[in-house]
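Saturday, quiet lab. Running sequence design on the structure tokens for the scaffold JK sent over.
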């Protein structure tokens, strides 16, 4: 029996067509690295489960009866994963080159002190997305979601968070990585715990970075591998009242709620609870 090197965890919620593209993309790579794909459907109700059963019956499918959120949903897949490294990924990402996956594995093989790796993410037009960050200030979420972000001091705060002073072209140890695509060392997750399930949609990726670093491991931004991420910020859409209406959006309310949860956990100290 071949030992599995990479476990791909795809969390799906109402993105049936993107999910199919993501699965087709992974299968088309014909990876030489032993791998497995695990799809977790968070009670989409859009035919995603039936689609997977019809077209990809050999792929492991976990159909959650309820929408458990980002952290719990991914953890369902992580618990079943057998790979040395786990690729936690959204359904809206595309890998361009099979050699990239071998490169990711080799880099982690060569650097056992690294527990979490984040590749460079690009938009469909090739422009670079912000995917590594410095921590929020206490008001950063408010600056991101309201017209206050247009003020000079707020712009400076956001620029610091988004690391706009960094060219995103060199390997670098960072505080936070975006959870759209994360490559995690399974043995470390087994030790420090997987994603914190107190979060529903946001900050589980950031809190995991904090906890990993608290245990003495490194979190690395790795632009030598580039992945396309078809991303749209739903919580910033359809604002009114000069933009303050975005605070009424469901996803923005979840963002703020998860931010308060993050502050509570940060106050307790990382590494104490998995």
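Result came back. Writing it out in full:
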């Amino acid at each position: 029996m071949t030992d599995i090197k990479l476990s791909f965890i795809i969390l799906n919620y109402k993105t049936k067509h993107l999910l199919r593209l993501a699965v087709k993309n992974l299968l088309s790579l014909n990876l030489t690295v032993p791998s497995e794909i695990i799809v977790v459907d968070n009670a989409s109700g859009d035919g995603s489960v039936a689609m997977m059963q019809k077209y990809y019956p050999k792929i492991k499918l976990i159909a959650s009866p309820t929408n458990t959120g980002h952290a719990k949903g991914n953890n369902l897949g992580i618990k079943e994963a057998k790979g040395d490294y786990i690729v936690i990924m959204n359904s809206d990402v595309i890998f361009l080159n099979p050699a990239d996956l071998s490169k990711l594995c080799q880099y982690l093989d060569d650097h056992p002190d690294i527990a979490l790796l984040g590749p460079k993410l690009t938009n469909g037009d090739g422009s670079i997305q912000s995917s590594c960050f410095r921590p929020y200030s206490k008001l950063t979420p408010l600056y991101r979601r309201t017209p206050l972000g247009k003020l000079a001091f707020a712009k400076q705060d956001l620029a610091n968070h988004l690391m706009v002073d960094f060219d995103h072209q060199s390997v670098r140890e960072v505080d936070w990585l975006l959870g759209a695509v994360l490559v995690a060392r399974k043995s470390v997750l087994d030790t420090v715990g997987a994603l914190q399930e107190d979060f529903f949609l946001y900050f589980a990726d950031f809190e995991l970075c904090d906890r990993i670093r608290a245990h003495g491991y490194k979190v690395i931004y790795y632009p030598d591998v580039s992945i396309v991420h078809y991303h749209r910020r739903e919580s910033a859409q359809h604002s009114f009242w000069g933009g303050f209406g975005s605070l009424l959006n469901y996803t923005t309310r979840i963002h703020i709620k998860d931010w308060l949860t993050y502050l509570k956990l940060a106050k307790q100290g990382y590494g104490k609870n998995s």
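Notes for JK: The chain has a mean pLDDT of 91. The domain at 6-137+158-234 is CATH 3.90.550.10 (Spore Coat Polysaccharide Biosynthesis Protein SpsA; Chain A). Ask whether to fix the surface positions before the next round.
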